Amino acid sequence: MSADIAPEIVLALEIDDPALADRLAALLGNIAGLRLADPGEKAAAAIVSRDPRIRPADIALTQRELDVLALMAEGGSNKMIARQLNISVHTVKFHVGSLLDKLDATGRTDAVAHAARRGVIEL
Amino acid sequence: MSADIAPEIVLALEIDDPALADRLAALLGNIAGLRLADPGEKAAAAIVSRDPRIRPADIALTQRELDVLALMAEGGSNKMIARQLNISVHTVKFHVGSLLDKLDATGRTDAVAHAARRGVIEL
DNA sequence: CACTTTCCTGGCCATCCGGCCAGTTTCACA
DNA sequence: TGTGAAACTGGCCGGATGGCCAGGAAAGTG
Question: How many Å lie between the alpha carbon of A53 and the closest alpha carbon of chain B?
Fold first, then answer.
């Protein structure tokens, strides 16, 4: 056996830039012997950003947003974060809203995941 | 001249495993719009090794729980996850509840953070 | 002085989340 | 055959979340 049937290579596409990710996905979408990984799927290799223009940590987050983000990553609720920072729940929501906007996230879980991927926070 | 609508994407191949590198090089060698970088050349993205390496004592999560967890890490809501997996929202909540229990998390954000920290998932 | 940014606060409200109760089916294993 | 685990579904409900509206205070910049 040994004439290997060329087992499929699973590639994870981990590109932040949506435009580049789309183009790569289109180019690599239907190559025999190659498959892009589903979210969470284990891959043999990953395609990562190597473009100096896309700096990871240069997202303009204010100090307060970083405070809120860090507590979010610890699983804190808005109420808990408010108590920690001695501010109102409304203010926490305000900062969370800004974070969702700046990190292009759909929710707090997505925001934490995005921030971790970009190196803004360490899990 | 024209700035082509599809400028060539330069991809750096950074794989240690020679066999895998060869296969990838062969597969990606002649794709229109895509080019493998010469040594030292600046690339838009790189293909890096992502071998499923040894994970330290992963928690006993069922396959379905891993499915749900992966989609949670992508920021998916219960409704979206339900659609993705073709199950009901109630079932998603059931699995999420199990995940919160097993991962000792207070919420889905905490669950994803814990799972990432313990290497159960890759962000 | 006007002007901007950051940080802060409130109300209102639709939706989502997570925990509680209950149940069914399928499948492996003793 | 029965026993258990896994997966799946439903109703109900209190609380959390996020979006929208509105504002104010402080600090720095033109």
Answer: 9
